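Quick check before the chapter quiz. The format below is the same one you will see on the exam, so make sure you can read both the input and the output lines.
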Amino acid sequence: MDAFYRSFRCIGLFIALILQFQLAACGGWTEDPTGKNDRISVIVFSDVHFNPFYDPSLFQKLVSADVGQWASIFETSSIKAPSAWGSDTNYPLLALSLSRIRQDLGSNPLIIYTGDILGHNFPQMFFALSGSHDPPDATDIEAMKAFADKTVTFFMDQVRSSAGNIPVVFAVGNSDSYSGLGPDSAFLGNTAELFYSLFLNGTADHQEFLDTFKAGGYYSAKPPGTNLMVIGLNTVIFSAQFHDIEKSAADAELAWLESRLSSARSAGKKVWLLMHIPPGANIYSTAQKVDTNGRIATATMMWNQDYQKRFLGILSRYPGIIALTLAAHTHMDEYRILSPSNVLEITPAISPFFGNNPAFRTFAVARDTMKPVDYSSLNYDLATTPEQFEFYYTFSTAYSAQGLLDHSLAELFPVLVTNKTKQAQYRGYYFSGHNYSIPTVNTQNPITDGNWPVYWCGIAKMGQQELLDCVNAH
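Here is the expected output.
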């Protein structure tokens, strides 16, 4: 009998070793000697715009409490439903999104967050609830900043509890500030250590990160065990409204970006480029300018055109280096073709502020090239309020595509004009499944046959004049 148990134990240990080997081969960045596990999975989410003011009755408790007590305070709220269209993310919606992200982590080696932690109009909402002076005095402003810091800490703590030890690489958004108009120097200085410790989790050189992040909200990281450099840009300062104010900072960031790409090329590394505000058109604003003949006289652009030209020029000098480019800000499911081999993916928002359903993506990335080959979208249908975020669609299946995602998206662009079925799919996916023909509060301008050329041309026409020519020739 003892011999039987000894033999049984040996067999069990042997099986356990095999299982450990298989798990290691499937996890993170570990090499797979069989060649079968040729993809890794990466979760990307964005634009949470967390609103801690959604239940005003909790405000004073939140102000007085340590941030570690906030979750318990939110759980006492009588508001249990997730945010409705036209509002930012409340605690129930945040919990739903992070629960699904945690469920889908699998062997994800990192998580990507492309900006906007704080809700819209954060300072104004704080001043209204706190009984601040009109206008707010210095004491009021410092109290608002302290509450914003607590909100950022709470959000990051919640993400970290869902992510475990997985690094969260990121880009800063225009709402990540004390003014709501882009990351100001005080916000960057006060939150730098939070971003480094709670998000990056040690994947960047500490001092180098502090130097560039405090100076301008950008940084680079090198996830351990990879041949990858992640560059997180602050593209808010490339916006036209900041052209004169932030010119020296924007010039410095563009010079830094070129130095990072040069370093990556010399070291034989691939780059993942993260940003919040994308280049190209502000499609929403431009679509509202369409006349009865489907023409536009002008177009609203996301960036100052000088910065955009310089930025695209820098990318053109480093072909083959950038394997993945991600942005956010529009809250919609869309993309922009920067060049045939560099397509910028825009991640839909968790916040339903602009009439979209909450959504995020999981990318399948080729292990050898670090380029994306596919993605799946998961959404939360606010019309039916399911128990959790659900699978929405997979790109390759929806559009009958295969191969590298950049190439597939570039090839899809002309098809969206000639293939009405795929055009209808794109128009439906744009709002992550929300039926935009139903009027809702603060909804995005619906896509109609009249303004569709703006949405289509905005995919590939990055310059203002070429966008105008494309729309008016459609």
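If your answer matched, good. Confidence is low (pLDDT under 50) at residues 1-36.
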